[in-house]
Amino acid sequence: KEKGLFIQCYQNRRFDSDFLTVQKVIESGKLGDILEVEMHYDYFRPEVPENTHEFSTANSYLYGHACHTVDQVLSYFGEPDDIRYDVRQLLGKGRMNDYFDLDFFYGNMKISIKSSYFRIKERPSFVVYGKKGMFVKQTKDRQEEHLKMFYMPDHEDFGIDLPEHYGVLTYIDEQGDYHEEKVISEVGDYSRVYEGIYETLVNGAEKVIKDEETILQMKILEEGIKGIQESENKR
């Protein structure tokens, strides 16, 4: 600020299709009061932790991946009342952090973010439980999938979910009738990060990724990895 420079974290996952679709479902009110949200981002890449023979905070799974899911939580639900951390080295001390499970509490609502390198079958990307029903989005946003195939955003169907990717909403309506229906996915769009930067620099709009959100997230990640750091320092 003193030098008049602009800096902002690249939190593109705020604009993932699955995350935007979850917001649409919550805001529809069909689930009633939200009780619990589970967010999963899993891999089956055992070779990564198996070939890593030292612990590094900078290369931890928490720092590398929770930075996205924690940001999703903070950007939509705000600062939590409390957080519980379960951050592990599944292969033992002296090895990389390859697992995390964080619970964020907002009154009676719990938001859980869970990730592991050892999930041969991925858990649903999102599961949302409310007093009137639940929503399950099995598959993740497809933008990264398409980018890795060099299928660029200039294609009209870039990142677009097909019907088989749609999440399933199950609920009881106000008349007591049971419903189970697919929800058309929202369109993910990472370019919204750059559009936000433009609006801030040119038109003076508020940052899309606010400084206080970034600082809070950094504190959460530092607190989450602290237990492993202390354990490693005792070796």
Automatic annotation (TrEMBL):
<dbReference type="Pfam" id="PF02894">
    <property type="entry name" value="GFO_IDH_MocA_C"/>
</dbReference>
<dbReference type="InterPro" id="IPR051317">
    <property type="entry name" value="Gfo/Idh/MocA_oxidoreduct"/>
</dbReference>
<feature type="domain" description="Gfo/Idh/MocA-like oxidoreductase C-terminal">
    <location>
        <begin position="24"/>
        <end position="231"/>
    </location>
</feature>
<dbReference type="InterPro" id="IPR004104">
    <property type="entry name" value="Gfo/Idh/MocA-like_OxRdtase_C"/>
</dbReference>
<protein>
    <submittedName>
        <fullName>Gfo/Idh/MocA family oxidoreductase</fullName>
    </submittedName>
</protein>
<comment type="similarity">
    <text>Belongs to the Gfo/Idh/MocA family.</text>
</comment>
